[in-house]
Amino acid sequence: AKAAGGNQWHWFDPGMDRAADEAARMAAELSQALLRDQIFVLFQPIVDLNTGTAVGAEMLMRWRHPEQGLIPPDVFIPVAERTGTIIELGRWVFEQACLRSADWDRRFGTAAPEKISVNVSARQLADPAFVATVRDILDRTGADPAHLMIEVTETAVLDTGDALTRLDALRALGLRVALDDFGTGHSSLSLLLDLPVDVLKVDKSFVSGEAAEHAGAIVVRNLIGFTDDFGIDAVAEGVETSAQADRLRSAGYRLAQGYLFGRPMPAADFEASFRRATAA
Ligand code: C2E
Ligand code: CA
Ligand code: CA
Ligand code: CA
Fold first, then answer.
1. Contact between 70 and 33 (Cβ < 8 Å)
2. Where do the EAL domain residues begin and end (predicted)?
3. In this predicted complex, what is the ipTM?
4. Exposure pattern of 175-214 as b/e (b: 16+ CB <10 Å)?
5. Closest alpha carbon to 150 in 97, 194, 202, 114
6. Whole-angstrom distance, CA of residue 172 vs CA of residue 126
7. Which residues touch 7 (CB under 8 Å, ≥6 apart)?
């Protein structure tokens, strides 16, 4: 079938048709998922390696499909990106973060982890209304912008025309900006360290992947010196073992995230953990 040109390719390959149908159906269902209450968020702690306490949380989106069960974000976020549904989903997630942050500030004060981190996709960053939407949600929820952080990837920033202006505007609103999945793109270190970001999240492939044993370990060890010099915080992602945590600590890392410290969990479970920590 592959030898056939043009539209015939589809015509002769029912498998392709099915895949295309599936994708179209998922896109249509995803556009209704928010309204149907199928989208929810989990929180994964970001901890201080020296004290073990959570100083923040990353908010991660989930889709509970009525027939297919839990669909991971790696599957549905790209679909939402392609169709534009991510704009609506992203707005909702940011609002959830603001509501949660204001709620924690009110109920727990300084006992609560200070920052909630939210992922922002390339499509959102490219949206001319993005900054106004953020400002509007902050106003409406009364959340303290200093307690919110947005995470953007290097490719999202570098491929989006107005990204730098937008990041500056977000920081002017008082939000912090993190560069996510650091090290997975192809940009030079000096270019990246020059971006208007406050935090650099070192990708898990350097921390717990196969490369973590050799090349990754060197990156991890040396990067911290650069971030210190540039006044940027570093968060090591994907920490799974205490040996990895020890290595990071001795390299000078203060902040980390990973299954070792906690999986993404519902807000109530996360609250229980930091309340327990405060009581102890
Ligand atoms: P990410 O932003 O890099 O998020 C971290 C991912 O690593 C999460 O996967 C998290 O569960 C996983 N993780 C955390 N600790 C460990 C560990 O120790 N080992 C391993 N192997 N994995 C760990 P998750 O929740 O499946 O999310 C996948 C990606 O989907 C995220 O990667 C992010 O790019 C995207 N995503 C999730 N929620 C949102 C959202 O609300 N908006 C947008 N735009 N993207 C989102
Ligand atoms: Ca992230
Ligand atoms: Ca990441
Ligand atoms: Ca990612």
1. no
2. 23-278
3. 0.98
4. bbbbbbbbbebeeeeeebbebbbebbbbbbbbbbeebbee
5. 97
6. 18
7. none
- Ligand 1: residue of 96, 119, 182 to mutate (most ligand atoms within 8 A of CB) is 119
Q: Are 89 and 61 in contact (CB under 8 A)?
A: yes
Contact 201, 168 (CB under 8 A): no
User: pLDDT tens digits, residue range 32-76?
Assistant: 999 999 999 999 999 999 999 999 999 999 999 999 999 999 999
Tokens of 227: 């971030």
Amino acid letter, residue 165: T
Q: How far is the CA of 120 from the centre of ligand 1 (A)?
A: 12
**pLDDT at position 2, please?**
45
User: pLDDT by residue (tens digit) across 122-135?
Assistant: 999 999 999 999 99
CA 58 to chain centre: 6
Q: How far is the CA of 153 from the centre of ligand 4 (A)?
A: 7
